[in-house]
Amino acid sequence: MINFQYARANDVADAVRQIAADPAAKFIAGGTNLVDLMKYDVERPARLIDISHLPLTTVEETADGGVRIGALVPNSDLAYHPLIAQRYPLLGSAILAGASQQLRNMASTGGNLLQRTRCLYFYDVTTPCNKREPGSGCSAIDGVNRINAILGTSESCIATHPSDMCVALAALEAKVHVVGPAGERVIAFEDFHRLPGNTPQLDTNLHPNEVITAVALPARGFADNYSYLKIRDRLSYAFALVSVAAALELEGGTIKEARLALGGVAHKPWRDTAAEAALRGQAPNQTTFRHAADLLLRDAKGYAHNAFKIDLARRAIMRTLAQAANGTPQSQSDKKIR
Amino acid sequence: MQTYVGTPTSRVDGRAKVTGQAKYAGEFNLPGLAYGHVVVSSIPKGRIKRIDTRQALRLEGVLDVLTHENRPRMAGTDRAYKDDVAPEKGSPFRPLYDDRIMFNGQPIALVLAEDWDTAQFAASLVQVEYEKAPHVTDLRAQRENAFVTKRPSKPRGNASKAYAAADVRHEAEYLIATEHHNPMELFASTVVWDGDGKLTVYDKTQGVQNVQQYLCGVLNKKPDEVRVRSPFVGGAFGSGLRPQYQVVLATLGALALERSVRLVLTRAQMYGLGYRPETIERLALGATAGGTLDAITHEAIAMTSQYEDFARNDTGWADLLYKSANTDLVHKLVRLDVSTPADMRAPGAATGVFALECAMDEIAVALKLDPVELRLRCYSDRDQSEDLPFTSKKLRECYRQGAQAFGWEKRNPAPRAMHDGSELVGWGMATGVWEALQMPTAARIVLTANGHAEVSCAASDIGTGTYTIMAQVAADALGLPIENISIKLGDSTLPQAPVEGGSWMAASSAHAVGTTADAVRKELLRLAKKMPGSPLADAKLDEVVLADGKLMAGQDATRAVSIADIMRAGEVERITQEKTNSFKEDSAHARNAHSAVFAEVKIDEQLGVVRVTRVVNVVAAGRILNAKTAHSQIMGSVVGGIGMALHEETLFDHRFGRIMNANIAEYHMPVNADVHDIKVIFVDEPDELINPMGIKGLGEIGLVGVAAAIANAVYHATGKRVRDLPITLDKILS
Question: Where in B663-710 does DSSP place strands (E)?
């Protein structure tokens, strides 16, 4: 870890002003990822601007029937918030599938979106990594890539986004509110994270010096038919090999609306509208689920150690859709898969 | 009078541990402490061409940067670096000795600063230029270069011929990934500069005297100039048996600065220490149609470093367990550009018995025999390598009690036949075996007239309960309440003890205490006899006992004198005795601990997710001194076995010759969610031959067989035989 300066932001405008004034500065909120990265010398900010005291900690209903979540609401508070637990249980479930209680107590809503990949090479500064050091090469493509991506990869990068919460947010069509030097704007969730392409150093479409202020959920919460299923190398406290967020609206024995997003498989939470379209109007059965899974995975590409994820993802999609359709969502405390 | 030995007793050091009063190597604070941080190599092989420390040295608060170029003088012979646990063959690693790089993560510089943050920041400013050399780190790719290092016993009969002629045959290779110990406590040393070149070294180690002698040899110090202490150790599992590089570096730092130095390694740096070596195990079993074995071939190929031949007993265990007229057992090594492997809980047996017990399960399937029944048919009452009987072997009883406690008779033998909702259920079992060793160990007892005793010994308690069992033995032998016993451990100036390992510390330390307590009793009797009108005037040593604070003849309460009265009459304030245990030479018996492990797994068939829902581990290990600490020790071993079976794997990128998951986020060990019902049973195994107290030790036996029982349960559940640890879900689904 390098020595760094520390400053506090008084309000959102002050935060934007401070970050714009110092190109080597970074925001810190919960610090659950940034501090690790600093210890590994992956991040070397000369200055940390502490935004954890900004008044962005409320969860409130909005005029359109949705919910607005302040960017500094801790993951734990959000998961157990009555509005979330009752109306968006998919989101609460996904949050509780991630990390540990202690980490969730520290981690913020905005920070969760900005987690960096857990690719082993990204963390090891002695190895080439295009995300960490553009142009140095991707070590994972021909290296230890069990935890790497199978969808949307490029020749530059096969890293994944590690969040569970974001997979649910993608399925729920959340919107991200940000403030920057040019003022406020709203980013649709699917446009927030990027695919690696030839600029894997960019995880998101945030403009320079923007700060996340809130995440907004639309009214539709899929509280009756949802499930978040996370498959990993031990039963808790591990990043997803594959995770699936499924949300359905059923009417008269057919699927009226469907959402399907995957974690652990791509550089961003992977949502496929074609797969969702294939579910709509169909009976919620294995044939339907299988077809949607095949569609979603049609362009999947495996590498030496992670090709198994394609079949695993297919199985997980089918299972999660069945859990959602049956109204038997996966419990995040009992690890037996329902 | 309460008897402590055999009674479940809470840890005597428990309160100190949970209240933070127990201090570990990196926790000793003193004025003027300087802090170290290590710079490690980022290549596996080559030379340091240039190491530039100028930028680090310019940083305010940096005191010095030690490299091979400017370190204090160190010994130049291999002999000086050979600690008690060093492999016989090879040249031990010499930290900071010269410009050669022999493994990734090798220490190449020590930054010393006024505070830890400065030291670690300065470490990042040290610039190193390497001359790289071609390296090899892949055991599987290098297996053709394996060479025979040892045979646990001479071949008997002709195993390959008998195998070819056998009614039923099974041959397979089993692969065990490299594993790291990952004790909770980081490796740390605090070296106190006592002045005039004298040092007190607080070290995370399983053997203070081993470290003391090693440091004296390496740094050319006189024995009275270096005192090594490890009053508490936060887990080690074998990683602290040999002196680790941080103790050398911290001591070099203290000598260079003439000042006290603390050095704590990072978790990532601990992956540059020892590990359980990746091993390829080939088993070929030939059986008669009646279910007895006629041929056992067991070949192990393990990795070691280029500079030391580390080899343990992987293949010798079949001789102890299963009768066979023909055996061929051999251990091979492949030298790679890595650090030397280390003992890790049940070294050799954990890997070798895993393979043997999976192979036994496979041939049981081929024979259509119940796996317990097969083991009973093949049961050996003798160690066939030397053709010796055992001091005791209640393994049949382990199988019986284990099967009963587990409900084994309800097992449907067919794979994939048992279900629980959407989960496949698998029941598997395996045998465990380990050595029952004992070592020369001394103890000092200081008995004071107020009926308190201090018992001291250089041994380390690495969390196993040594403090507690020594207090129990002392309390019984001295006839005092356990509260009146204080135990001092982990100090090289205390009476001689071996490293804490090999499961030998319970037997060794208990008999050291017993022998010394006998001497105390003898001295008390000598004094008592001199008392005017002594009721013990005619008493013989072998008829007097210490009980309730009194010396008494047998159970005769009228012939008793209190310890206080004896010492007052004898005008002594304290009685001090120091003795070394001694064990009868007995080359006519084999000495082993045994176990039977039964495991239940539930596997989601669609997704391959495994839950180990039940484990019953039945252990025959002689007399159990303390069922409470013993139970914990075996339970912890089972958790280690679950990790070995399902989770643990050190991942190398062989292009870089580098470990890629050197942290406990990506090196997976079981978490609470992975651990369910664990039942531990100790069978009654009186053993009057092994040693006077009948103790065998429990450090390793609880781990052996666990991974095999789980692997066999996975097969029973799924019909899929995974021979490659860890059993991750992709291997089940493939």
Answer: 677-682
Q: What is the mean pLDDT of chain B?
A: 97
- What are the strands, taking DSSP E only, across B137-244? 147-150, 168-176, 188-195, 198-203, 226-229
Interface of A with B (CB under 8 A): 1-3, 41, 118, 120-121, 123-124, 126-127, 139, 142-144, 146-147, 231, 233-239, 241, 308, 311-312, 315-316, 318-319, 335-338
Using CA coordinates, name the residue in chain B closest to A4: B121
CA atoms of B344 and A138, how far apart (whole Å): 34
- B436/B684 Cα distance (integer angstroms): 16
- Whether B655 shows a pLDDT value over 60: the answer reads yes
Cross-chain Cβ contact B660/A120 below 8 Å:
yes
Of A123, A234, A312, the CB nearest to B668: A234
Indicate if the pLDDT at residue B268 is higher than 90. yes
Contact A84, A63 (CB under 8 A): no
Contacting residues for B552 by C-beta, under 8 A, at least 6 apart: B536, B544, B545, B546, B559, B560, B561
Q: Which residue has the tokens 């339970």?
A: B635
Helical spans, DSSP H, in B313-348: 318-321
pLDDT 10s digits, A302-334: 999 999 999 999 999 999 999 999 999 999 999
Strand B147-150 relative to strand B326-336, pairing: antiparallel
Q: How many CB pairs under 8 A join A and B?
A: 97
DSSP SS3 for B367: helix
Percent of chain B with pLDDT over 90: 99
CB–CB of A234 and B674 under 8 A?
Answer: yes
Is the Cβ pair A337, B674 closer than 8 Å?
A: no
- Whole-model pTM over 0.90: yes
Q: What is the mean pLDDT of residues B26-37?
A: 96
Does B434 score more than 60 pLDDT? yes
Q: Which residues contact B587 (CB under 8 A, 6 or more apart)?
A: none
- Provide ipTM, 2 decimals: 0.97
Render pLDDT for B513-552 as a digit per residue (tens, 0 to 9).
Answer: 999 999 999 999 999 999 999 999 999 999 999 999 999 9
Residue B183 has pLDDT above 80, yes or no: yes
Q: Do B653 and A144 touch (CB under 8 A)?
A: yes
The structure tokens listed for B517 are 């307590």
CB atoms within 10 A of CB A24: 10
Please indicate whether, in this complex, the C-beta atoms of A234 and B606 are within 8 angstroms of each other: no
Whole-number Å distance between alpha carbons of A205 and A207? 6
- For residue B308, indicate whether it is catalytic: no
* Residue A300 near residue A310, CB atoms below 8 Å: yes
Of the partner residues B121, B607, B668, the one whose CB lies closest to the CB of residue A233: B668
The pLDDT, as a whole number, for residue B552 is 95
How does residue B558 score in pLDDT terms, banded at 50, 70 and 90? Answer: confident
Asked if A44 and A2 touch (Cβ cutoff 8 Å), the reply is yes
Q: Which of B121, B651, B666 sits opposite A2 (nearest CB)?
A: B121
